[in-house]
Amino acid sequence: MSPRKLILMGLSAFALVIIALITGLSASHQPRDAWPTTLELPSTRGLLHADTLSRGEAGHLSVLIPGFTHCPDICPLSLARLQMAWQRLDETSRAHLHPMFLTLDPARDTLPVLSRYLSAFSLPVTGLRLPSQDDTRLEEFTQRLGIQFQRREPEQSHPPEHAQAQASAGEADYMIDHSVAIFVIDEQGRLRDTLPLSQTPAQLADRLTFLLQSVVAAPSSDSVATVNTSANANVPATGGA
Predict the structure, then answer these.
(1) What's the burial of 7, exposed, middle or buried (CB within 10 Å: 0-12/13-18/19+)?
(2) Distance CA 19, CA 176 (A)
(3) pTM given for the model
(4) What is the pLDDT of residues 8-46, one digit of tens each?
């Protein structure tokens, strides 16, 4: 390949990066509605709407991680990362933050299953689950947050005579590919920030502290905190995460 082509390819790649950055910044000026005021989600703590955990008090934030309990690595790592950030926060901050885990696999993740799974973490996390037959509301809620997910079936690697047995096993072996991030929602149901899991626990704790200070200082102002929708903040996970 000629040096001229290499230079043009490099300039094109640089331009794409700049466009992505500009797009992310232009989309991050204002919080946006994510949790409709009329939507109640079944949870391990009863029916929840946007301000249930804050009891209607201003200055609270919910931090939501999407995932599923059969996830082999990314989901437990995400919860562990949030747990480490949680341990860095003071008591006042913890009292105003509400960790949540939204299952993207309600067919297998019943509320008792979620309760057992989340009890393994030293984190007061609430499990959220929409009924498996209610796919429309789950898709609508995740789309509002910017969460992408899809079911991935196990590979067809057995001979035809084993198809029936594989089909039965496949019902339990499928994976869910999904976005990986922490979604920060205020008590009015607005998405305040999307935090990438690539951040260290210290960085996550610092950002959560800043967001809390912002909503406490001006809870009704839409300009107090930005929504981070940059490309690396909401990365679709692969490999069944």
Answers:
(1) exposed
(2) 30
(3) 0.74
(4) 444 443 333 333 333 333 344 467 888 888 888 999 999
